[in-house]
Amino acid sequence: MNDLPPLGALLESLHVVSIPMRVPFRGIECREMALVEGPAGWGEFSPFLDYAPPEASRWLASAVESAWVGWPAPLRDRIPVNATVPAVGADDVPGVLARYDGCTTAKIKVAEAGQSLEDDVARVSAVRACLGPDARIRVDANGGWSVTEALTALGELAAYGLEYAEQPCATVEELIELRKSLSRNGIDIPIAADESIRKAEDPLRVARLGAADIIVVKVAPLGGVGPALDIAAWCALPTVVSSAIDTSVGIAAGVALAAALPALDHACGLGTVELLADDVATHPLVPVDGAIAVGAPAVDPAALARLAAPPDREQWWRERVVACYDLLAER
User: Fold this and answer.
1) Please, what is the Cα angle at 166 between 118 and 221, to 5 degrees?
2) 92 contacts: CB under 8 Å, gap ≥ 6
3) Fold of the CATH domain 78-299
4) Rounded to an integer, what distance in angstroms lies between the CA atom of residue 20 and that of residue 24?
5) Distance CA 64, CA 289 (A)
6) Average pLDDT over residues 213-217
7) Relative to the CA of 316, which of 24, 98, 118, 178 has its CA 20 to 30 Å away?
């Protein structure tokens, strides 16, 4: 990888933090991540704990880009964002939405393990009731449905006027089959691809085979803002920028990508700092009047100290950085 700083510089600037979640999200109750500081600012290295070095190394490349290289010039100064509703009970939906100031789009997690379609319908119904008829709502199954399950679920959820369904099935082939089945059954719900891009060896295959109407791109899993911009250009489909569960440092990279896209027709999934119980920034990047301002946040040294992970976890992350760095250095 070009522009790779010395390993010592990465490790010297490394801060590992552990931040509780407001509510469990995809089974995560506490989020660990590493932050690095370089001449261009701060970068975040936060691949999920089960990601092996070949996948996690792309997240390190993104952190290096943020901290040592920088981002393209923005084309807009505010990015509209969606509220994110985890797989909570319908009664908890108003409390979740209340944390998202002015957001008129919501992404709702569905197909959660151990839950039923009835749970999903109740959650989506509650979001629609809270936000009203003019709001845009989208669902995200994280590849959790088979084609048959997706067809049944989306047939029921269509009554709530979905903007799109994100990664309803796991594979590109299933997405192709589902799009055909939805069309045959008169169900007009666009399909967005997420995991089929960010976890794929060939992220362009989705667009090439006509498996989706919309692509969802995340900066860190794709190796940085630059590579993500290239993928969006090659796919030539409407693009939504999303995030994992990031601090404001990670969110700033997603905001930079959204700000650099030639067109931005959908609210972006960059409001996920609201899912964390704390943050590392002096002024967290959270929605204000439905949007996030473009720009890098100032990192609060007191927050880094307050949220510092235990020494054994810091050592684990240091070893992880070394393993990922070695892979990047070989490329």
Assistant:
1) 130
2) 23
3) TIM Barrel (3.20.20)
4) 9
5) 31
6) 97
7) 24
Pick the catalytic residue: 107, 180, 199, 218?
218
All structural domains of the chain with their residue ranges: 7-70+302-330, 78-299
CA distance 154 to 133: 18
pTM attached to this predicted model: 0.94
CATH topology of domain 7-70+302-330: Enolase-like; domain 1 (3.30.390)
CB 59 within 8 A of CB 84: no
How does pLDDT run across 116-159, given as a tens digit for each residue?
A: 999 999 999 999 999 999 999 999 999 999 999 999 999 999 99
Length of the chain in terms of residues written: 331
Mean pLDDT of 219-226: 97
